[in-house]
Amino acid sequence: MRLDVVSIFPEYLAPLRLSLIGRAVEKGRIDLGVHDLRDWTHDRHRTVDDTPYGGGAGMVMKPEPWAEALTALLAEPAAAGTDATGAEPAAPAERPVLIVPSPAGTPFTQAAAAELAGREHLVFACGRYEGIDQRVVDWARDRAEVRLYSIGDYVLNGGEVAALVMTEAIARLIPGIIGNPESLTEESHEDGLLEYPVYTKPADWRGHPVPEILLSGNHAAIARWRRDERLRRTAAVRPDLLAGLDPDTLDALDWAVL
Ligand SMILES: Nc1ccccc1-c1cnco1
């Protein structure tokens, strides 16, 4: 996967060079580019914003620097010509996905992360101030699949933190990134249920014992208990998730535990 992030605070994206994503970049599983939007300005002050038409507080990000940046980053790779054998050119490359973190975006979900983990090229446009001139988003639709995503119903100062959240959720689902794929199963939201509670040594901590079933060695009973706990937890904390469960998941649940 090629991953480009454009921001006026590129240092905000430094965590992408650490840990899981950092290792994936070192291994070449992710080809990462973090870019300063101001590199596509041409005035002495490297201006990226201006006052809003229609008045109002704050500033709006100018379209020109974004158009230059995205033209450079979304450029179609050179079409593969026919090779010496005259074989047909390779199929056209998949269109890049331009992701614009936005409070007005579609809620970002585990399903979106899974779908994006299979894409070839993601470009994140991190807006600041009151946002990016809308014409940039409209203009980009000819060059990329454009998606506005929100990571939650709260206000941030810019898209950088949202880009970090989304890249982590996406990168960990790229095949081969997580050492043990088993750890990707039965996670919260992976199948619509929240995860079960976890315990480790000591068996009794400050008078709080580990649930007996987990010490029983009865793997079938442990699996059933964990399934029940996932349902119990989801019903208590996120009943809204129950409505969206896959029918197979619903059928497998023992609702008597509630
Ligand atoms: N509040 C914001 C401001 C700028 C860019 C993204 C956001 C955002 C994304 N998800 C929630 O908020």
**Helix count?**
8
Largest sheet, spatial ordering of strands:
2-1-6-5-7
CA radius of gyration is 23 Å
CATH homologous superfamily designation of the largest domain: SPOUT methyltransferase, trefoil knot domain
CATH class of the largest domain: Alpha Beta
Largest sheet: 5 strands, parallel
Q: Into how many domains do the coordinates divide?
A: 2
Structural class: alpha/beta
What is the N-to-C succession of helices and strands?
EHEEEHEHEHEHEEHHH
Mean pLDDT: 92
Shape: globular
Helical content class: 25-40%
Topology:
Blueprint: E1 2-7, H1 19-26, E2 31-36, E3 49-50, E4 60-61, H2 63-73, E5 97-107, H3 110-117, E6 121-125, H4 134-140, E7 145-150, H5 160-171, E8 204-205, E9 208-209, H6 219-237, H7 239-242, H8 247-252
Parallel strand pairs: 1-2, 1-6, 5-6, 5-7
Antiparallel strand pairs: 3-4, 8-9
Helix pairs in contact: 2-4, 3-5
2-(1,3-oxazol-5-yl)aniline is lined by residues 101-103, 127, 150-152, 155-156, 158-159, 162.
